[in-house]
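Supplementary Note 3. Input sequence used for the single-chain structure prediction.
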Amino acid sequence: MTDQIPVTISTENQVMTIAWNRPEKKNALTQLMYATAADAIKAAAEDDAVRAVLITGTQECFTAGNDLGDFLNNPASGEEAPVSQFLLAISTLEKPIVAAVNGPAVGIGTTMLLHCDMVVAADTTVFCMPFSNLGLCPEAASSFLLPRLAGHQRAAELLLLGENFDAQQAKECGIINYIAAADSYLALANDLVNKLASKPPTSIRMTKQFLKQGQDALVQERMRTEGEAFAQLLRGPEAREAMTAFMERREPDFSKF
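The predicted structure, written as discrete structure tokens, is reproduced below.
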């Protein structure tokens, strides 16, 4: 066990920083972490002293995705689930969100970036959306947002194969804005978020509103339908085989399905 706080929240110079802080587990996300981050983003939305939000991890890792043990032992689904509340918060925040990413960015570690306004990734970042390999489906409205950024074929490659891809491919697909060295990516992200926080706040919020206008309702609806399908698949035999194989450190066998 660790006494370390799994998410650190700080506000300085009108920027709220939310940092996944569970490095001994590669920042694998638990329901507590989702709830903490969701509450922080909701607070940022209401606080005039916060003009922009930065989401990051620890120096070597963004997040390895969901904590599998927490995920299986405490399955949460529906709009009130902590993960749903987190996704709702980042997808509807009117203030700009910048993400700084390094190391593993797995599952929701990649899909949450689709809701950020700017993303800086270290050149050592490894992205992955392995839902199909786990007997699951996309989440976070990634099946809606990713084809609009990357085109159908690239989105299909990333979501259907569920394989690792690097920062250059993420940039080509429109998932990230900038690639930086591992020792400077966070500084670049901080520079960007501080620039955003220093600009006229009403103008920034209205510009973001216009950028997202016309797709907000579609994003929320897709997150809802993906979430329902995800919960159904999670209880199914394919996901059970995938999770069991992962725990037993063997290759899953889907030939019987």
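The chain has a mean pLDDT of 95. The chain is about 45% helix and 15% strand.
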